[in-house]
Amino acid sequence: MEHYFEFSKYKTDFKTEIIAGITTFLATMYIIVVNPAIVSNTGMPFAGVLTATILVSAFSSIAMGIYAKNPIVLAPGMGLNAFFTYSVVLGMGVKWEVALGGIFWSGIIFLLLSVFNIRTEILKAIPKQIRYAITAGIGLFITFIGFVNAKFVIANSATLVGIGKFDAVTITFLIGLLITALLVVKRIKGALIVGIAITTIMSIPIGRFYGDASAINFGTSTLVTFAGIFSAPDFSVFFKMDLINSLSLAMWPVIFAFLFTDMFDSISTFIGVSEAAGLIDENGEPKNVKEALIVDALGTTISGIFGTSAATSYIESATGVEEGGRTGLTAIIAGLLFLPFMFLSPLLSVVPSIATAPALILVGVFMMKPITKIHWDQFDDAIPAFFGMILIPLTYSITQGIIWSFISWTVIKLAIGKYKEVSWALVVIDILAILLLVL
Prior knowledge:
Blueprint: H1 2-5, H2 14-28, H3 31-39, H4 46-68, E1 74-76, H5 80-92, H6 96-115, H7 118-124, H8 128-149, E2 153-156, E3 160-163, H9 168-185, H10 191-203, H11 252-277, H12 289-306, E4 311-313, H13 317-322, H14 328-338, H15 341-344, H16 353-366, H17 379-395, H18 398-415, H19 424-438
Antiparallel strand pairs: 1-4, 2-3
Helix pairs in contact: 2-14, 3-4, 4-12, 4-14, 5-11, 6-11, 6-12, 8-11, 8-16, 8-17, 8-18, 9-10, 9-16, 10-16, 11-12, 17-18, 18-19
C-alpha cells in the first residue's frame, strides 16, 4: 500500500491518510441528507435519492482514490442539484426521468472529452493567475458556507447579508470555532475531527434545555437528534432514466448546461484542492489530471443511472488535505465511510451543521495561501483574478466566478495587445461560457 500510494514521496503515512479520510467524510456527509431533500422536490422518492446519493458518492470517491490516486471526494453537487430540480424539472417542466437521461448523456460527453484529453487541454488553458484566484475564491466560498450553516451570517432584506442574532446556536458555534482554531494553531493531529466532535457534544442541550433548533434543523426542535439506527435502502430510482426522450432537440441546451456547469465546477475544485495540497507535477499541472477527470466524468454518468443529480469533485476535500491527506487512500477511506449509511442513514442527524461549520471556515483560511502568488501590481493580471476570487462567494457559484474571470482576462489581454496570453482553447471556453450565460 505504501508503495502504491507513494507515502514517502508525499510525506504522509497510513494513519494520516485515515484521519484525513474521516475528516473529509465528516465535512461532506451532509450531502447524504441535503441532496435528497432538494432533489425529492421533483417528485422523486426521498429514500430512493438518498440511496443513489450514497452509492454515487462511495463509488466515485473510491475510484478517484484507486485510479487517480488523488485525495478528492466526489458526490452529487450542490448547485447542480438545485439546477436539476428547480430549473430543469420544475422550471422547464421536464420529467425527472428525462432529466436523469440528460445527466447520463452529459456524463458520456464529459467522459469522451476526458479520454481524448480535450478536457485536460481546457484545464491547461486556464491561466495560473486565475488558478490561484480560484483557489482563494473557493476558500472564501467554503468559509461563507460555514458561517451561513452556523446562522452566524444570515439573509438581510436591507443589506442582502447580515450578522445573525446571538443565541444558543451562534454562541455554541463560536465556542466550537475558537476551540477548533486553537487545536489547529497548536497543530494537534485530527484537529478538525476533534473540533467537530466537541461542537456536536456542546450542541446537545440546544432544544432540550435552552433555545429552539427547529428553524435550522429541518423543523426538529433539538439540534442533535437521535432518530434511530437502521433504515433499509431504497432502489426505486435505479435505471429509471429516459435515454430516448432526453436526446430530443429541446433537451440539448439542458445537456450542454449540465456539461458546462459540472465541468467547470469540477475543474476549478480540482485546481483549488491540488494547489492547496501542493499536488502539482513537474509541468505545474495538478497530479494525475487526466485520470481524475475521467473519474469525475464517470461519476456524472453513474449519477444518471443510479438516480440523482450530477456528481462532482467536492471543495470539502480540502478539509482532509489540511489534515495531511495527500494520496488516494484519503478518498478511498471517505468513500468507504459512505457505504454503511445505506443502512445507518438516521445516524447522520447526530452531527449538526454548526458542528462542521468551524472546519469549513478554517479550511477557508488554509486555502487563501495562493493569493500571495497573484501579481497584484500588474492590473491586467490582478483584475481578472480578483473578479474570479470575489464572484465565487458573492454569486454562490464557482462556475460564475470562473466564467467572469475568463471573459475579463481575455478582453483585457486582447485589448492591450498581449495576444500570446490568450490561447485558442481559452477563446473557445469564453464562447461556451457566453452561450451558457445566454441559455
